[in-house]
């Protein structure tokens, strides 16, 4: 075996690669449980704003949803960035797209996070 | 037996810029190589048909092309292995120059970019060989088999999308040195591959491994390189 | 004349010899390599079994034995000074390849592993010796890749897919070459102080051949047309074990690892022809024995092939009856996994092309045209010799299979071809650079490309009455039948006449493809022209030699005749005729003896 | 630098016309299910956020989800999430722990197993969702 040690720098691509795999593994319980519960067990016909309000009033569910939001959306947006990189070839183009996706990611995440933390307002419905 | 050979034709020199297919009906033996059929066409049906070939038994890597949609060497596929009509097309992702001949230069450029040569100027004092155990030798045996035919690289979806991706063949050749106990430039090579257009563009689609006519475990080699980048270890 | 290039050294051919020459030449001179294929596709890559060097890594061996074995293998036609030089150089050059990174297979102690090969013996015990340094059964591939890698490292300039069509000779000196760039069809003139030909062999003259399509004798044909003779062209090696009909090579390493040849009676017939080394006799002996077995009705199922058996049980059976032991004294035994590890590629070939698994079934094999012992005459420095007095043509070098040093004489030993090309490739590279440093460019004539244009125009304007493929087929067939393993006056004369007729008909070859970009039809036609010239010279040289020696086996003259024929043939092409001359063999240490294995 | 000669056209030709083995289709499905899930995820985050920002709109959003085309799409989404997860887990384990298992045999078997396993996990869920849809949207099963 080759026992020599090698030096490599950590860069964003390497980190992203590892993140995709680790977050992916974490998302299996998170996303599957969420989908199983909301789409299958409860069903879209049983869901209305009161249901959401009750759910988001629970700290446990809030934490769960925040985790899911963070990891699922980051995982997805990074996946999209990789797909985009397959089609945008210039350094500049790739950097611009990465920024654009980052901004979208931040805005949508923020919107989602506010909703999860602040909860539903069924009284305004 | 009778087979139909459908061959991709392209030759801007005579205004044949719109890729089309020519069909030939041939009387063949089931054990004939596809390359034999192409030779037959060139000799007796259409002398203008152009393709590369040399050794005719799968060790030189000249005649890689898409045969019925997937990358193969024309000299390693027998008529009995495929169904008629047999469709021959040039490798995907490299510029077609004429008929089945593509421009190999970008491919070779990627190969050259990964320092494809032994870096180690220390020679034993007695001038003899450096020692290497059979186990150390076995570690990189698989990736020494590469014949640079480009079947792997041009089967890769990441390469189709982005020709800047260094591609499986270059990574295989880097692997051959990275895991050679005698070599001393593993860090440099890993750094070259530790980029967006290096190993991280690999999405493990696995077409490369399926396409390799030398049966190199290409995806495995790439995965080992990725792991080496992360762990900093070549064990 | 837009595409003018000037290099001190121009190397034609990117195989093992060309790349080795390039590595050495480029250290001292501005060098370019012109290759009609991408260099890694050269035929060196198809070599399987190993490179011979008396390292003595696993058992006793020395260069003296290697030298004697090579002299004996050459049937005493090899030049002994050159052979001795090559066998001495073998050891440092193999280490050099290892230092370049060549991944040799290794023995348990970490040294380069060695295997047995035909004709290589312990001179005391007469038993086969472990001398072939190998990398599984892809030694040639590894050499080619390693040398190409080193060329990249040393930034050698390559012109890939450039077909050289003409050598420029000015006042008896080589001055450059003219080549066509296949991708564009443009002609390029390369002005050079030194030109090295490393263009490989010409096995495509024969029907059943292990040789690549590219092996069309370009180098010999081009130099013949420039008044340079070809040496010992009647000696062409038929390797005993090519896959039946296809000719794809099954390495001698199979027999080195213990495989045996069997006839239709299941008999290991080599015991009768070579009682001491049996299946590991030299190639000419084995090929001839196979031919005799077939002639006497013992071909498999009445056909003209034999079975090669490397199934573990067979190997172990004969290893036991031969009393074969490992260097440490334990009996030699193998398993299927051992065979697979040492011979992976030939197992793959058999599975792909025959649907036969050599670990479970026998392989059908027949002698296949394999290697040109003859070629452009050179000395040990790689300098090309133009007459029987060994006069050197200034600035012209040749190395590898295209050259005839002669270290192989009438028959080459396995593993000596890879050795030849690295040893003499290196010499040619060194000397070419040295020559370039001490000389000036010879100025080129204004019409340097005129002969090349003439050659191309002949095809472009040809009547098209004849098909290249038909002529090639007829040539291969007659050469296989009459200038193959066994030869007779009548057959060879017939072949000579047929080739002359084909050359006449060749003038009526035309092209459908009138384009410039990758006009491979034109290339095929040009290559056939080379093959016809080479075939003619081969046939004429062969008819003249009235003896049997090495690969030149005549039924009408079955004995070697040292009194009259211990000499090299030189053949010139003059005014469309072949003229023959002869020159003596260099004998230093070993007087000719009867050759038994 | 040689110019980049690959293009969208090459990519699509490759995706659609290259006759790869299991891995090729596994790659395409992974990408497709990932992008599909992401698209849904973005919409889902935004529509759910209306419960805080524009509560009055949430009713309309939910109503849309309850329509037959969306419910069918939801059944597809569940498959996408399951497949992307199982396949992603397979890739992660191979990449992080068992790179030497990236062989033809394990790949072909692994991709098939992934597909079968995902389908088996999806079918009961799809059955329940189908039942709900038929019950609510078409008044079947005495709903």
Indicate the topology.
The complex is a heterotetramer of chains A (125), B (235), C (597) and D (143).
Chain A: H1 12-42, H2 49-56, H3 59-87, H4 91-118
Chain B: E1 2-11, E2 16-27, H1 34-44, E3 64-67, E4 70-73, E5 86-89, E6 96-98, E7 101-102, H2 105-113, H3 134-139, H4 157-161, H5 167-178, H6 186-193, H7 207-211, H8 218-231
Helix pairs in contact in B: 2-5, 5-6, 5-8
Chain D: H1 8-17, H2 22-53, H3 55-65, H4 68-96, H5 104-138
Provide the helix percentage of chain A.
over 70%
Tell me the Rg of chain A in angstroms.
19 Å
Give the mean pLDDT of chain D: 92
Kindly report the name of the CATH homologous superfamily of chain D. Fumarate reductase/succinate dehydrogenase, transmembrane subunit
Name the overall outline of chain A: elongated
Q: Give me the CATH architecture of chain D, please.
A: Up-down Bundle
For the residues shown, what is the average pLDDT of chain A?
92
Largest interface: B-C, 62 and 61 residues
Q: What Rg of chain D is obtained from the alpha carbons, in whole angstroms? A: 20 Å
SSE string of chain A: HHHH
What is the first-to-last residue Cα distance of chain A?
Answer: 68 Å
Give the N-terminus to C-terminus distance of chain D in angstroms: 67 Å
Low-confidence stretches of chain D: 1-5
Per DSSP E runs of 2 or more residues, the count of β-strands of chain D stands at 0
**Beta-strand share of residues of chain D:** under 5%
Provide the CATH topology of chain D.
3 helical TM bundles of succinate and fumarate reductases
> Please, how many domains of chain A?
1
**Which structural class do the helices and strands of chain A define?**
mainly alpha
Description:
The complex is a heterotetramer of chains A (125), B (235), C (597) and D (143). Chain B is an alpha+beta fold and 235 residues long. Chain B is 30% helix and 17% strand. Chain B has 2 domains: 2-101, Beta-grasp domain (Ubiquitin-like (UB roll)), CATH 3.10.20.30; 104-231, Orthogonal Bundle (Fumarate Reductase Iron-sulfur Protein, Chain B, domain 2). Chain B is built from 8 helices and 7 strands. In chain B, helix 2 packs parallel to helix 5 (167-178), helix 5 (167-178) packs antiparallel against helix 6 (186-193) and helix 5 (167-178) crosses helix 8. In chain C, helix 14 runs parallel beside helix 16. Chain C is built from 17 helices and 22 strands. Helices cover 36% and strands 21% of the residues of chain C. Chain D is globular, with a radius of gyration of 20 Å. Chains in contact: A-B, A-D, B-C, B-D.
Summary, kept brief:
The complex is a heterotetramer of chains A (125), B (235), C (597) and D (143). With 125 residues, chain A is mainly alpha-helical. Helix content of chain A is 77%, strand content 0%.
């Amino acid at each position: 075996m080759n026992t020599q040690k090698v030096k490599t720098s950590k860069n964003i691509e390497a980190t992203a690669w590892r993140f995709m795999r680790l977050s992916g593994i974490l998302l299996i319980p998170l996303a599957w449980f969420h989908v199983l519960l909301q789409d299958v067990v409860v069903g879209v016909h049983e869901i209305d704003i009161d249901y959401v309000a009750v759910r988001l009033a629970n700290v446990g569910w809030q934490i769960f949803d925040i985790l899911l939001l963070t990891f699922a959306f980051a995982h997805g947006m990074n996946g999209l960035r990789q797909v985009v990189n397959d089609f945008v070839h210039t350094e500049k183009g790739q950097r611009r797209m990465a920024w654009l996706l980052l901004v979208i990611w931040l805005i949508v995440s923020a919107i989602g996070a506010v909703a999860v933390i602040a909860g539903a307002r069924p009284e305004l419905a | 037996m009778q087979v139909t050979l459908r061959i991709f034709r392209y030759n801007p020199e005579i205004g044949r810029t719109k890729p089309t297919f020519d069909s030939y009906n041939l009387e063949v033996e089931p054990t004939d190589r596809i390359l034999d059929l192409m030779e037959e066409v060139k000799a007796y049906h259409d002398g203008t048909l152009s393709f590369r070939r040399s050794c005719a038994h799968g060790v030189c890597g000249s005649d890689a092309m898409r045969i019925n949609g997937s990358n193969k060497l024309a000299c390693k596929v027998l008529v009995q292995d495929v169904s008629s009509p047999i469709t021959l097309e040039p490798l995907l992702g490299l510029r077609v120059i004429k008929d089945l001949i593509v421009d190999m230069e970008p491919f070779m450029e990627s190969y050259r970019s990964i320092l494809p040569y032994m870096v180690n100027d220390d020679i034993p004092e007695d001038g003899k060989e450096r020692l290497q155990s059979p186990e150390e030798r076995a570690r990189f045996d698989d990736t020494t088999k590469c014949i640079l035919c480009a079947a792997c690289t041009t089967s890769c979806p990441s390469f189709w999308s982005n020709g800047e991706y260094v591609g499986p063949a270059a990574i295989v050749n880097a692997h051959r040195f990275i895991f050679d106990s005698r070599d001393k430039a593993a860090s440099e090579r890993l750094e070259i591959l530790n980029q967006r257009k290096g190993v991280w563009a690999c999405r493990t689609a696995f077409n490369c491994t399926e396409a390799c006519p030398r049966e190199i475990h290409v995806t495995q080699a790439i995965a080992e390189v990725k792991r080496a980048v992360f762990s900093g270890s070549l064990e | 004349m837009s595409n003018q290039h000037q290099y001190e050294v121009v190397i034609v051919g990117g195989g093992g010899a060309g790349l080795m020459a390039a590595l050495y030449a480029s250290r001292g001179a501005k060098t370019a390599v012109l290759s009609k294929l991408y260099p890694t596709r050269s035929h060196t890559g198809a070599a399987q079994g190993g490179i011979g060097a008396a390292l003595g890594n696993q058992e006793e061996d020395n260069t003296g034995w290697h030298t004697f074995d090579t002299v004996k293998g050459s049937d005493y036609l090899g030049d002994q000074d050159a052979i001795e030089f090559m066998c001495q150089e073998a050891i440092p050059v193999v280490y050099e390849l290892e230092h370049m990174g060549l991944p040799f297979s290794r023995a348990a102690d970490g040294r380069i592993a060695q295997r047995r090969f035909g004709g290589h013996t312990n001179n005391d015990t007469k038993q086969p010796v472990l001398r072939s340094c190998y990398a599984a059964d892809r030694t040639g591939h590894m050499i080619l890749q390693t040398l190409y890698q080193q060329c990249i490292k040393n930034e050698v300039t390559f012109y890939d897919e450039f077909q050289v069509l003409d050598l420029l000779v000015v006042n008896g000196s080589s001055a450059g070459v003219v080549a066509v760039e296949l991708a564009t069809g443009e002609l390029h003139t390369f002005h050079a102080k030194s030109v090295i030909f490393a263009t490989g062999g010409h096995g495509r003259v024969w029907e059943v051949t292990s040789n690549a399509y590219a092996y069309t004798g370009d180098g010999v044909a081009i130099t013949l047309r420039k008044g340079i003779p070809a040496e010992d062209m009647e000696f062409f090696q038929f390797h005993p074990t090519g896959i039946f009909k296809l000719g794809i090579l099954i390495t001698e390493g199979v027999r080195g690892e213990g495989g045996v040849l069997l006839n239709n009676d299941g008999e290991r017939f080599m015991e009768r022809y070579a009682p001491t080394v049996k299946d590991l006799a030299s190639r000419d002996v084995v090929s001839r024995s196979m031919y005799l077995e077939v002639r006497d009705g013992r071909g498999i199922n009445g056909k003209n092939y034999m079975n090669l058996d490397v199934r573990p049980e067979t190997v172990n059976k004969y290893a036991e009856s031969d009393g074969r032991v490992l260097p440490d004294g334990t009996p030699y035994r193998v398993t299927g996994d051992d065979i697979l590890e040492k011979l992976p590629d030939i197992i793959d070939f058999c599975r792909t092309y025959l649907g036969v698994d050599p670990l479970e079934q026998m392989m059908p094999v027949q002698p296949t045209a394999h290697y040109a012992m003859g070629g452009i005459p050179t000395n040990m420095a790689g300098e090309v010799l133009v007459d029987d007095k060994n006069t050197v043509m200034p600035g012209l070098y040749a190395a590898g299979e295209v050259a005839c040093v002669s270290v192989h004489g009438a028959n080459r030993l396995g593993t000596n071809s890879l050795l030849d090309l690295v040893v003499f490739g290196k010499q040619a590279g060194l000397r070419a650079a040295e020559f370039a440093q001490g000389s000036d460019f010879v100025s080129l004539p204004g019409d340097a490309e005129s002969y090349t244009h003439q050659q191309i125009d002949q095809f472009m304007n040809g009547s098209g009455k004849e098909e290249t493929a038909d002529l090639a087929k007829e040539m291969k067939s007659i050469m296989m039948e009459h200038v193959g393993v066994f030869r007779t006056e009548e057959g060879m004369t017939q072949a000579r006449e047929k080739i002359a007729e084909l050359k006449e008909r060749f003038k009526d070859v035309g092209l459908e493809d009138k384009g410039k970009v990758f006009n491979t039809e034109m290339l095929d036609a040009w290559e056939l022209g080379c093959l016809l010239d080479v075939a003619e010279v081969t046939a004429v040289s062969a008819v003249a030699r009235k003896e049997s020696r090495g690969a030149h086996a005549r039924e009408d003259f079955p004995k070697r005749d040292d009194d009259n024929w211990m000499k090299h043939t030189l053949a010139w092409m003059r005014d469309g005729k072949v003229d023959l001359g002869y020159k003596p063999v260099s004998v230093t240490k070993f007087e000719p003896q009867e050759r038994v294995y | 630098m040689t110019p980049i000669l690959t293009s969208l056209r090459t990519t699509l030709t490759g995706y659609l016309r290259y006759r790869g083995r299991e891995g090729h289709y596994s790659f395409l499905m992974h990408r497709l299910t990932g992008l599909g899930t992401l698209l849904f995820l973005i919409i889902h985050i935004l529509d759910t956020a209306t419960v805080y920002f524009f509560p009055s709109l949430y009713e309309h959003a939910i109503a849309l989800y309850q329509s037959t085309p969306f419910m069918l799409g939801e059944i597809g989404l569940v498959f996408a999430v399951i497949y992307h997860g199982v396949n992603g887990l397979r890739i992660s384990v191979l990449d992080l722990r068992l790179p030497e298992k990236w062989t033809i045999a394990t790949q072909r078997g692994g991709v098939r197993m992934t597909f079968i396993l995902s389908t088996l996990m999806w079918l009961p869920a799809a059955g329940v969702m189908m039942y709900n849809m038929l019950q609510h949207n078409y008044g079947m099963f005495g709903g």
